[in-house]
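Page 37, continued from 36.
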């Protein structure tokens, strides 16, 4: 219980750092598809033979209609799922969003450690810090978009603990 609370605190601290960095975003970190903007996507670096990893980004919708992130694909994992992580009582739970992740009109959704994320299932290779991968995202209305996914070392973020806990409890 305490562990999960400190994980949340760390996730919040990480997110605060990300929010500051967002002000310095440059054009190449923003990918547009239809009415959507995808800002600063990245993937979590993994140790060798890690079964899963996570993808994070901010998705903004400047359109008048709700869109949904419904899936995607990558070459380095068997498949991709859209997940939500949140506290239920005292327990951190993660689940796949079978209807996708809603991106509200005029709003934005933050995919971050401890919250919504893209989960890479059955990893085929290690992701090392400084490397770049490609991901294809699929949106209900905006369609598909391919973008570059820098790999970031997130040691100390402790989000990986939640992930490994999830994969073994499933
Ligand atoms: Cu997940």
């Amino acid at each position: 219980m305490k562990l999960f609370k400190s994980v949340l605190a760390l996730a919040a601290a990480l997110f605060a750092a990300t929010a500051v960095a967002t002000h310095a975003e440059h054009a190449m970190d923003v990918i547009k598809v239809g009415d959507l903007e995808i800002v600063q996507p990245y993937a979590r670096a993994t140790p060798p033979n890690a079964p899963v990893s996570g993808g994070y980004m901010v998705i903004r919708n400047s359109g008048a209609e709700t869109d949904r992130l419904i899936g995607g694909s990558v070459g380095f994992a068997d498949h991709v799922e859209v997940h939500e992580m949140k506290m239920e009582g005292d327990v951190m739970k993660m689940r796949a969003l079978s209807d996708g992740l809603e991106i509200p009109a005029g709003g934005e959704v933050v995919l971050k450690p401890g919250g919504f994320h893209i989960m890479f299932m059955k990893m085929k290779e290690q992701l090392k810090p400084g490397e770049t991968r490609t991901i294809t995202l699929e949106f209900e209305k905006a369609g598909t978009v391919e973008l570059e996914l820098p790999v970031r070392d997130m040691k100390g973020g402790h989000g990986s603990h939640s992930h490994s806990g999830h994969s073994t409890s499933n």
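The CA atoms of residues 55 and 102 lie 17 Å apart. Flag for discussion at group meeting. Residues 19-25, 157-165 have pLDDT under 50 and may be disordered.
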